[in-house]
Amino acid sequence: MPDVTRPYRRVGHKGADLIAPGNTAASFDAALAAGVDMIEFDVLPEDWRDPLGSRLLLAHDHGHDLSSVPTFEEGLDHLAGTTFAGVDLQVDLKLAGYEARVVEALRARDLIGRTLVSTMEKESLTLLRRLEPSLRLGWSVPRVRRDYTKSLLTRYPAYALLLYAKRVLPGQAADAITSGRVDAIMAHWLLVTAALVRAVRDAGGELYAWTVDDPKEIARLEALGVTGIISNDPRLFAPAPVS
Fold it and tell me: Which residues of 102-220 form beta strands (DSSP E)?
């Protein structure tokens, strides 16, 4: 659960992707050194056509060379050590079909209580809830594979979609939380509004904003009262208050 003595949870995206290559032990170590509360990392099957049989890798997509990236098990073994005992994990599933394998690996390392599994796939969330009711689940929105606001060709259609999503998301988020389907909403920072913060809070859930590398935007989200902020550079986060 979030530390209520801190204004927001500091989450390192892929570890600390702007400090060391993401989804690697070096990136996880850099995130820890920067004082994060949680480390986010991506998991996908090496062969998307064989999610049950192919290796699970720490990788965001299949658009890069996957021959030398760490396996999911190697990443968990590194994070399960005593060095990371005070840090929670956000395991982001990029596809459907390997949910049971992820749950089994977390159980084998006694990491269920420290982990929030997130995904854009609603069917995966339903299956994960059935497989391990105590596992915290996060619904990632919107359902996109890349940030379309960064391209001139797709920026304006993307903003139109975001405007619509901003209107409907608070109600959808509240329903997903109160029904018990999820515990948290993982929202692109452009979707985070005061209405969404209130809806998630009133429903008893958590709200995490991704992926934020601008200090001014971090300050805005903190002022809104989000549960956590996900950044490629956790050095941007304000130091935790001294207890």
Answer: 115-119, 136-141, 184-188, 206-210
| Residue carrying structure tokens 């996109």 | 144
The Cα–Cα gap between 60 and 43 comes to 7
Would the pTM count as exceeding 0.70? yes
Q: Where are the domains of the chain?
A: 9-235
- Structural tokens at position 44: 């996908």
Give CATH for domain 9-235. 3.20.20.190
pLDDT in tens, 108-134: 999 999 999 999 999 999 999 999 999
Two structure tokens written together for 202 = 């009133």
